[in-house]
Design brief:
Blueprint (H helix, E strand, L loop, with lengths): L8 H54 L1 E2 L2 E4 L9 E4 L2 E2 L3 E9 L4 E14 L6 E9 L3 H5 L3 E4 L8 E3 L10 E17 L6 E4 L11 E8 L13 E4 L12
Antiparallel strand pairs: 1-5, 2-3, 4-5, 5-6, 6-7, 7-10, 8-9, 10-11, 10-12, 12-13
Length: about 240
């Protein structure tokens, strides 16, 4: 009587268990690979956004245009005052530049409004920029009022309306825990410059500006820290010429 070779139930169970273990190991390997790809993609996207914001700011300040504006010209009863058009607040900056995001480079000069707003979920801040077409010193003068006495006894200060976000606003940086602007002021003693949080002089420009941005905590090792932005103010036209 011949016997046919076969597999016992125990051997079948062992084979199924080994196949299951191999399948689970392969599944974890695939998940780990996909996680690494996603982490790399997040890091690349973070680098792209950070470098994009830095590059945009560099181009905006590289094309800085000094404008002597008749502040208050939009008010019927006001007496316009000639002043350098520049607003420097801790979270608001306003100036004229030949660089335009909307036109992807240099085109029609723009009045730029850099400012911050809360994110929609309220857990951080956004750095925004508005662009207003600049046609003449009067288009800038319509956004500022004649200087008024400083309530703290300092030099007179110009007044500006608060910038408002809209569907045309650009987001330069998102999900930040803090944003602060600073302005470099020359002094006569060493170190001959220092940083101030507010620039109020209607007759002079800061020698440089700095934007400190801190991202929200979390995001893992793939999240890149934002470097402080620094730019010197090198007007490429005489301030006394304005723009006509």
């Amino acid at each position: 009587m011949s016997r046919r070779a076969g597999m016992t139930l125990l051997e079948v169970l062992i084979a199924v268990t080994l196949v299951s273990l191999l399948s689970v190991a392969m599944l974890y390997s695939v998940q780990a690979g996909l996680g690494s790809v996603a982490s790399i993609n997040r890091r690349v996207e973070s680098m792209r956004k950070a470098s994009g914001a830095q590059r945009t700011l560099e181009q905006q300040f590289a094309a800085f245009l000094p404008v002597v504006a008749p502040c208050g010209c939009a008010l019927p009863d006001a007496r316009p005052q000639s002043a350098l058009f520049f607003e420097g607040q801790p979270t608001v900056m306003r100036f004229v530049s030949a660089y335009s995001l909307a036109e992807s480079g240099r085109g029609q000069p723009q009045i730029l409004e850099l400012f911050t707003i809360p994110t929609p979920d309220g857990e951080g801040m956004r750095l925004m920029v508005n662009e207003r077409p600049y046609f003449s010193p009067y288009s800038a003068g319509a956004l500022c009022l004649p200087s008024v006495p400083d309530p703290q006894g300092g030099p007179p200060v110009l007044l500006f309306p608060a910038p408002q976000p809209s569907s045309a606003s650009f987001i330069l940086a998102d999900r930040l825990s803090s944003v602060a602007f600073a302005y470099q002021e020359p002094i006569r003693e060493a170190p001959f410059t220092h940083w101030v949080p507010t620039w109020i002089s209607p007759d002079a420009l800061p020698t440089a500006v700095r934007i400190d941005m801190t991202p929200l905590p979390g995001g893992g090792p793939s999240r890149l820290p934002l470097l402080p932005f620094y730019a010197r103010i090198r007007p490429n036209r005489s301030a006394n010429e304005g723009l006509n």
